[in-house]
Design goal:
single chain; 9% strand; 113 residues; elongated; 2 strands; mainly alpha
Amino acid sequence: MTETSIGSPSAERGFQTLHENTTRAELFPAKQHKEEWWEEAEHEGSSLSRYLYDLIQEARMYRDSGAPFIQTQDQTVKQLQNKIDDLQSQLEQAQKAGVVEPTSVSMTSSPEF
C-alpha cells in the first residue's frame, strides 16, 4: 500500500493509504472548476476523488453507448446550416420537378440566427 496526500480547499493536507491495485492520477483544473467539483461532491456525499471517478465512468458509458457528444455552438451552427442547405436543395428539386409550386419565400444564408 502507498500513501498519497489528499486535501480539500479548506482543510489541511492529510495522507491516505491507497489499496495496492489503486493508483494516483493528477488533474490540473482551473481553481473555479475544482471548487465547483468539491461542492458537487459534497452535495453527493462523496469525496472529490470518488465523485470525479464516478463522473468519468458515467461519461465513458455514455460515450460507449453511442450517445451524441456535447457539441460546441459552432459545430451545431454548421450542422444546422448544412441541414438548411440540404432542405433548400430538396425544395429546388421538387419545384423543378413540378411537385411543389415555386414560392415567394427566399432562403438566404446568414450567419445570424
